[in-house]
Amino acid sequence: MMAGFSHTTRRHPRSRSRTWHRSGPDRATLGIIGAICAVAGFFVLGIFLGPVAVVCGWLAMGRSWNGARPVPALVALVLGAIDTVLALMMIVGTAAPAYGMF
C-alpha cells in the first residue's frame, strides 16, 4: 500500500507567525544581552556594541512600540543609541585635523 497524499504526519500547517514568534524568556534574554552590550559599549568598541544593543533592544521589544515594554529592552535601545552617537562623535572628532574631542 502506498502512502496517500492526503495523510500527513503534521497536524497543523506551518505559518509565518509561528516561525517568527518569540516567547517571553527569549525576549528577556535579548533585552539583557542588549543592555550588557550597551553598558560595555561605553568603555570599549562603542561603534560595534552600540548598534548591537539597539538591535537586541528592538527585537526584545517585539519590533514595535506598542504594548508593554520590558525595562531591559528599553534600556538597551536608549543606551545603545546614545553609545552609537557618542562613538560617531569621537570618530568624527578625531578625524578632523587639530580639532580633537578632548
Please give a handful of descriptors for the protein shown.
single chain, membrane
Describe this structure as you would to a colleague.
This is Small hydrophobic protein. Residues 1-23 are annotated as: Disordered. The chain crosses the membrane at residues 28-61, 73-99. There is one protein chain. This protein is mainly alpha-helical. The chain has a domain at 27-64 and 71-95. 62% of the residues lie in helices and 0% in strands. It is built from 4 helices and no strands. α3 packs antiparallel against α4 (71-95). The termini are far apart. The model has no long low-confidence stretch (mean pLDDT 77).
Count of individual beta strands? 0
Share of helical residues: 55-70%
Would you tell me the overall average pLDDT?
Answer: 77
Main structural class: mainly alpha
Task: Please tell me how large the radius of gyration is.
Answer: 21 Å
Distance between the termini: 81 Å
Shape: elongated
